[in-house]
Structure formats: C-alpha cells, structure tokens
Design brief:
Layout lengths: L3 H6 L1 H10 L6 H37 L5 H32 L20 E6 L12 H8 L4 H8 L9 H19 L4 E3 L4 E2 L1 H6 L12 E2 L4 E3 L4 H5 L5 E4 L5 E10 L18 E11 L4 H18 L4 E5 L11 E9 L4 E10 L3 H6 L1 E4 L6 E3 L1 E9 H11 L7 E2 L5 H4 L3 E2 L5
Parallel strand pairs: 2-7, 6-12
Antiparallel strand pairs: 1-9, 3-5, 4-5, 7-8, 8-14, 9-10, 10-11, 11-14, 12-13, 15-16
Helix pairs in contact: 3-4, 5-12
C-alpha cells in the first residue's frame, strides 16, 4: 500500500507513477478526501482543546461554589459537535482506505514508461538458440508420443488446464522441484519453507492479490480461504505484523508449492499443453531486505533464478517490464523468458520483482534499525526459481532427439535416476 504522507508531500511524483501504471484517475479524489480529513481533524482538535480548557474552568467554579450551568450546557453542545466531527473523520478514513487499497505501487525510476508488454526492454540473453538438423516436435506431441503427459484423462478427472504427469514425466517433474530446491539452498543460501496451500484474506491482501485479483483465485467459501496462486503469499506472510532486527536481514526463503490460478482473463491466449494451466508447480524465492540495499538484492535474486537455467543449459533472455506491464504490487520486475525450439517461441518462466515497502505496509512487516533503534518498513522481493510447466516445455523441446526420445543432462540425472526418456505404455 502506498504511504498517504508521501503522496501528500510529493503528489506529482505519485501522479506520474500511477499514470505510468494506468491507474492515476483516483489520485485527485484521494487528495481531496485527505484534505477534508485534515481540516475536520483540525476543527475536532480545536473543540477538544476548548472542552479541556472549559472543563478545568467548570471544575474551578464548582470548587468555589459558583454557578457553572451555562458552561456545562455549552460543553454538552461542544461534545456533540466533537462526536459528529469524529464520525465524519471515520467515514472519510474508510473512503480513503477504500481508494488506497486499490492504488497500484508506482514504478521505480529506472523502469521504462510504457503501456504494454510490447514496450518491455530486452536486458540480456544467455546462450544461443540450439540448432538441429532434424524436424522438431513441440512439447505436447513429444509428451503424447512418450506417454509422459495425459491431458485427456486429466480433463476427465478435473477439467481442462490440470496436467496429469505419468511415469517418467512425473519423475522428471519431481526431479525439477528437488533439483531447484537443493540448488537454491546449497548454492544461494536460502532457508527452505514448506508452506500451507490455503491462505486467509489477510494474507492475500498483504501481498497485494486482494482485492484486485480475487477473480483469478480459487476460493473455499466454507472457510473463506484461498488456494495459493504462488508460494509468495504464505511465505511473505510468515513475518506479517512482526518487527525484525536489522542484523537478521536479509532473510532469504525458498519454497516449493503447487499453485492454483483460475486464469479468468486468459480467453484467447495460448493454452496449448502446459503453456497456460490452472494448477502447476513452482519453486519460489522470497527475500526481506533493508531498503537501501533492496535493488542490489533484486539483481542477486535475478541471478539466482538465472543460474537454474544456466545449469540446465537452456537458452533464455531477460526483459525489464515497462510500467504498464508491471504487476499491481511491483515497483520493478524482470521476466526471464525461456526458448522452446519446437514451439519456436519464448515462454516466461520466472518473474523477479522488487515491491519496495508496498507489501510490507499492507502486511505490517517492519524492522528495527541497529543504529538508532527506529522502526521502519522493510522491502520485500520475490522471484520464481522457477515455475515448472514452461520449464518442462523448453526442456523437452531442447533435449529431444531425432528418434523422439529425451536426453537428461548429467546435472539432473541424480534426481531422475535415468538418462533418457523413451516411449512408455499409455
């Protein structure tokens, strides 16, 4: 959530920032309400000061047995006025909060101003697009021929968009998860978390999914709990309503979770095979950082995600999202897009975001400075490290042979316990 004090002090900064994220139309109303509130608070405080002063006079009159009825009656009217003003303040604060919770975070100064993904900025590429001297299949044809994915039976079980991994496909999926967890723990120093898959409204609000993205989330109406669309929600909320000592920062967590997304706005988008599904697996990295070093942490987080793909020798590129393509809560975000040679396209496999203090304000996550003991909001960051569906797409298409089998690179073989995927019975 944005800081109303900063908005008041730097209205043009926030006006430009909100307009850059296509969300500036509510700012004038917010500032008008804020001014109304401050004016009424001033009037209420003046009446309270008057009541305190006259109450002292009334006490003195009573002590000296002088008449005080007129002042007592006056203070009853003042008290009624205070009560009315305080109710006005309460109502305005509710309206202010209703607007504040719907305002997106503003982009960092380094983010390009743009309207859509077409204006995102290519930052770098790693490796080369692999070349083949035989015709390539896409991941769905490969998986069907090998018998490692069964979308027909999964549709019978759950409907479309819920993958069913079979045999070596299931084992490869599990290998990805364990490989990535071990990589981030052993090489990057993250602490492993195994979070709940159901979260409260307070948790989803804290990370910014609510209220904006409720339509994309699966809700258990009996208990009013949401299936997680990402482990970011439960892991970030570990420290909701807490104050962390500065000497404990940075806090670095990594978690595997299944993820559930209704994808209500996906009509017309590519939904073939694993490219866009309602349930998928993801390894998520979450960091809590002191504000002055959070953008250094952002670059480190990006590097941590990249090293997974480098270890698997998969070609990818990194783009910096323009302002109009940023998520509701992010101040800056890098997307890692992995190359799938059979599909001849890039797929987003990781988003690495710095939210600055936006989530921390919503979830009330703070830290105590070592130098002066002051308590401030910290910065939160997260990044996919990485999501498996599109990793699976690129992996199968990259490592396919002319015989339609899949070669497992050496670094992954201790997790799969096989070196090649061949046709399985269906």
């Amino acid at each position: 959530m944005l800081d109303i004090k900063r908005i008041r002090q730097e209205p043009e900064l926030f006006r430009k920032g909100l307009e850059a994220k296509n969300g500036g139309e509510k700012l004038n109303n917010l500032l008008e309400l804020d001014q109304q509130r401050r004016n009424i608070v001033t009037r209420s405080d003046e009446l309270k000061a008057l009541r305190n002063r006259v109450s002292g006079e009334i006490a003195q009159l009573k002590k000296t047995k002088q008449p005080a009825e007129d002042k007592i009656q006056e203070m009853k009217e003042v008290g009624a006025g205070i009560k009315s003003l305080d109710e006005e303040i309460r109502q305005i604060e509710e309206r202010l909060n209703e607007i504040l919770i719907t305002l997106p975070n503003i982009p960092h100064e380094s983010v390009k101003i743009g309207r859509s993904a077409e204006e995102n900025v290519l930052v770098k590429e790693w490796g080369q697009q692999p070349q083949y001297d035989y015709d390539l299949k896409d991941h769905l044809d490969l998986a069907n021929d090998l018998g490692i994915l069964d979308f027909h039976r999964s549709a019978k079980i759950s409907g479309s968009g819920f993958p069913l991994y079979v045999g070596d496909g299931a084992r490869l999926e599990r290998a990805f998860i364990n490989f990535m967890l071990d990589f981030h723990i052993d090489r990057h120093g993250y602490k492993e978390i195994f979070p709940p898959y159901l979260v409260s409204r307070d948790s989803a609000f804290g990370t910014g999914q609510l209220p904006k993205l409720e339509d994309d989330m699966y809700l258990d109406t009996t208990d009013d709990l949401f299936l997680v669309p990402t482990a970011e929600i439960p892991v970030t909320n570990i420290h909701r309503d807490e104050i962390l000592p500065e000497n404990q920062l940075p806090v670095k967590y990594v978690a595997y979770s299944a993820c559930f997304r209704r994808e209500a706005g996906s009509y017309g988008k590519d939904t073939r095979g694993l490219s866009r599904v309602h349930q998928f697996n993801k390894v998520e990295m979450v960091r809590f950082s002191a504000p002055e070093v959070s953008y250094l942490a952002h670059e480190e987080l990006l590097n941590d995600a990249e090293e997974i793909l480098q270890a698997l020798n998969l070609h990818y590129r990194v783009v910096s999202l323009c302002s109009g393509d940023l998520s509701f809560a992010a101040a800056k975000c890098y997307d890692i897009e992995i190359w799938a040679p059979g599909s001849r396209k890039y797929f987003e496999v990781s988003s690495v975001s710095n939210f600055e203090d936006f989530q921390a304000r919503r979830a009330n996550i703070r830290y105590r400075r070592a130098a002066d003991g002051k308590v401030s909001y910290l910065h939160t960051l997260n990044g996919s490290g990485v999501a498996t569906p599109r990793l699976m797409i690129a992996f199968l298409e990259t490592y396919q042979t002319d015989e339609g089998t899949i070669v497992i690179p050496e670094i992954l073989q201790p997790y799969t316990r096989f070196k090649m995927i061949k046709t399985q019975s269906k």
